[in-house]
Amino acid sequence: MSHRATVLSGYRSLLRASRIAFEGDHEAVKGAALQLRSTFEENRGIRDQEALEEAIEAMNDAHDFLVHNVVQAKLTEEGNYAVEIDGEKTKGKVHTDVHVVKSSDDVPDKPVPRK
Q1: φ, ψ at 12 (rounded to 5°)
Q2: 39 in Cβ contact with 15 (< 8 Å)
Q3: Distance CA 59, CA 8 (A)
Q4: φ, ψ for residue 75 (rounded to 5)?
């Protein structure tokens, strides 16, 4: 497969993965799509073979992270948040840092250190 076809396929896969990861959260889905588009546009001009392969690897890593590590809590009738973890979330590298985000406005600019 050519690099162009690989990148386009990866872009579509990332869009699909973000729609699944943020299902029901229109703002998060829209924000992810805008960020993906922006990142892919920034990298459109890459011609260096090594830099292109690094960008494709980063794209694949981002896809794997979305599929295997991102979960979305849902508000229950009791006023608590619950998370359902399916089999896909238990595969691959598991990141144990947990950040509770109530809305996209609550996302920190920098990683929050664990206590």
Answers
A1: -65, -40
A2: no
A3: 11
A4: -70, 130
Show the CA angle centred on residue 19, arms to residues 14 and 21, nearest 5°: 90
Residue 111 maps to a domain: no
The burial class, CB within 10 Å (0-12 / 13-18 / 19+), for 56 is middle
Nearest to 15 by CA among 58, 62, 68: 62
Residue type, 59: M
| Residue 114 placed within a domain | no
Mind listing the pLDDT tens digit for each residue in 40-52? 999 999 999 999 9
How many domains, in total, are found in the chain?
1
Model confidence pLDDT, tens digit, residues 17-27: 999 999 888 99
